[in-house]
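Subject: design request, 634 residues
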């Protein structure tokens, strides 16, 4: 059963509840969530929940009806995020694990690891003990394989995952690996599950060849009940009558498991299909179906692979898969997980572009709006470590908070795919030369109609939102003429407002996350007229922060002199160096009527000298020396 505790429960009362349940024979797990703290009581004991409900400090008791308890959604409402070193699996990220089926040699795994890391994988896989159908097939390199895998992981900054096939390998493997993989053939090897669970280490649990979803979750329960909190479920295809593919990828298992369990779910399209050319479409389908990531087999020379060559991707196919996932991620409202370049000395904090956070360990990121704003969702997706968001009234406040050191970073919208550029922020970037852009992120904007619990769509007469929110939902509002539009300064702020007003005829248009934060209900999700609605945000920081990664994008600003062909001459410099522009935007210069500056997004090539030389040449042509507003990696 789940015991939900009162917010202000005294420690003595909590301890009383624990001892009461432990004496009855329950094992207790405490979970401190964002919204509430709960105690999970599992075991064979039987106690009337009403008896527990009477104990001081108990808010409610929820019996768990499922045979799996710790793995169930009833036990934990929020999604579990499994953290492995710098990598987080679950939540708003798509994590891609990749590597060969088996570690075959030191050179093979090192070469593969470097290539995978460059293409965007965050974890390295590779079998050292291979459970092969035939005893005459390659069985893996054993401990040597583990050594090579560890070396390749360390050389590239990627954690490593490999399959454990026997309980007596566990202790040895712990010296080399970050995540244990339980293979499909061992999903119901309960002794193995118990012993691996006892290590407390993260586990990637493959679904058995013919396992039902319930059996799979029961296997996860074994791991959780024996001591690990970090289980990643992996759908890898099941046996059906179909023989064209190696297995049948059960994509429907993803939304089913997501509803039943809080654990992250990834998909292995390689073993699911057994055919290289099917890996890419099924991998993308898995992401579209809500998977938290993929594990994919890749080999530098699949024809020579000692196992699973036909399903292993060529490096260039993997690169394409990563590019396609990047494009798809925005549609499903997630970010592709990345490994930050620099690890904070001695700390747990990582930063994608600057590698540093405040000395105190807490990283504050300023955004405009109230808690629950789209900017806040975007920043949570961008930073791959826990950050604290700092709401600001205006865009200017974001810049000053970063400048004063109150926040280490800020997030500012630069452009929306429907509404165009946010000029105010371009102007602020110019006004504050000590602020630099250090990264960027995109968010798909999905508007929801939000009201107080118990309200009904047909009774809504007033809809509050930022003018942009109202404009972007015009078709929906036109179809509901009873709803009057009311402008508000902020989308999330309008949700806070209707929560305070507590009226059944009021609604707000905002991010669905704002509904959760203010205890409101979503009456309808996805009411924006055009679903291709994205906002691009820049992450800003103070100048002295140094980028740890090789930049591949720059934002520069320059002004062309007022004579024929001046802008053309500037552009020619970039063209001669073969530099690709991603954007150009002109803005009036303050105090100089009818004169303009140009903001440009430029792709910085591998050979950064070309970019530096172009800037030098631009200096000789442009009115004022060109300024770099930021150079970073996207
Ligand atoms: C593997 O990942 O290498 C593997 C053997 O997978 P499965 O257990 O899913 O067959
Ligand atoms: Mn394999």
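Subject: RE: design request

Done. Sequence follows.
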């Amino acid at each position: 059963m789940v015991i939900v505790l009162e917010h202000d429960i005294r420690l003595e009362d909590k301890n009383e509840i624990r001892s009461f349940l432990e004496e009855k024979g329950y094992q207790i797990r405490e979970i401190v969530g964002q919204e509430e703290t709960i105690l999970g009581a599992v075991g064979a004991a039987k106690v009337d929940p009403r008896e527990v409900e009477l104990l001081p400090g108990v808010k409610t008791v929820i019996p768990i009806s499922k045979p799996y308890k710790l793995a169930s959604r009833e036990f934990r409402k929020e999604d579990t995020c499994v953290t492995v070193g710098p990598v987080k699996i679950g939540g708003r990220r798509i994590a891609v694990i990749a590597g060969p089926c088996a570690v075959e040699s030191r050179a093979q795994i090192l070469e593969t690891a470097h290539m995978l890391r460059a293409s965007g994988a965050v974890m390295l896989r590779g079998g050292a003990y291979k459970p092969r159908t035939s005893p005459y097939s390659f069985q893996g390199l054993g401990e040597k394989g583990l050594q090579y895998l560890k070396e390749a992981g360390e050389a590239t900054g990627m954690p490593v995952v490999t399959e454990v096939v026997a309980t007596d390998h566990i202790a040895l493997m712990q010296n080399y690996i970050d995540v244990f993989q339980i293979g499909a053939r061992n999903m119901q090897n309960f002794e193995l599950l118990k012993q691996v669970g006892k290590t407390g280490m993260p586990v990637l649990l493959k679904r058995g060849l013919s396992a039902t979803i319930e059996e799979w979750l029961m296997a996860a329960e074994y791991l959780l009940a024996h001591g690990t909190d970090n289980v990643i479920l992996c759908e890898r295809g099941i046996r059906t009558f179909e023989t064209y593919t190696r297995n049948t990828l059960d994509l429907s298992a993803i939304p089913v498991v997501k509803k039943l369990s809080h654990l992250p779910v990834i998909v292995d399209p390689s073993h699911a299909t057994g055919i290289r050319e099917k890996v890419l479409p099924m991998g993308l389908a898995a992401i579209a179906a809500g998977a938290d990531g993929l594990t994919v087999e890749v080999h530098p020379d699949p024809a020579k692979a000692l196992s699973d060559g036909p399903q292993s991707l060529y490096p260039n196919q993997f690169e394409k898969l990563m590019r396609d996932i990047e494009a798809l991620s925005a549609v499903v409202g997630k970010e592709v997980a990345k490994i930050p370049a620099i690890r904070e000395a001695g700390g747990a904090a990582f930063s994608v572009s600057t590698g540093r956070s405040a000395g105190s360990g807490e990283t504050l990121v300023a955004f405009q709006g109230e808690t629950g704003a789209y900017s806040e969702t975007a920043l949570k997706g961008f930073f791959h470590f826990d950050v604290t968001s700092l709401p600001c009234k205006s865009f200017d406040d974001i810049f000053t908070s970063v400048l004063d050191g109150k926040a280490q970073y800020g997030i500012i919208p630069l452009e929306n795919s429907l509404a165009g550029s946010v000029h105010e922020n371009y102007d602020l970037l110019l006004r504050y030369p000590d602020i630099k852009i250090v990264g960027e992120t995109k968010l798909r904007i999905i508007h929801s109609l939000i009201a107080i619990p118990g309200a009904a769509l047909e009774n809504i007469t007033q809809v509050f939102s930022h003018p942009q929110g109202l404009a972007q939902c015009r078709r929906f509002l036109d179809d509901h003429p009873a709803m009057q539009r009311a402008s508000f300064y902020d989308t999330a702020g309008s949700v806070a407002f209707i929560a305070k007003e507590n009226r059944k005829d009021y609604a707000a248009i905002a991010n669905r996350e704002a509904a959760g934060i203010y205890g409101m209900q979503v009456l309808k999700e996805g009411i924006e007229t055009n679903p291709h609605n994205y906002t691009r945000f820049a992450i800003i920081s103070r100048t002295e922060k140094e980028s740890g990664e090789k930049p591949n994008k720059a934002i520069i600003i320059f002004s062309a002199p007022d004579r024929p062909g001046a802008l053309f001459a500037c552009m020619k410099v970039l063209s001669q160096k073969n530099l690709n522009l991603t954007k150009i935007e002109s803005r009036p210069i303050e105090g100089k009527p009818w004169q303009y500056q140009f903001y440009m997004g430029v792709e910085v090539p591998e050979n950064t000298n070309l970019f530096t030389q172009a800037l030098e040449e631009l200096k000789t042509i442009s009115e004022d020396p060109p300024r770099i507003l930021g150079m970073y990696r996207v």
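Residues 315-331 form the longest helix (17 residues).
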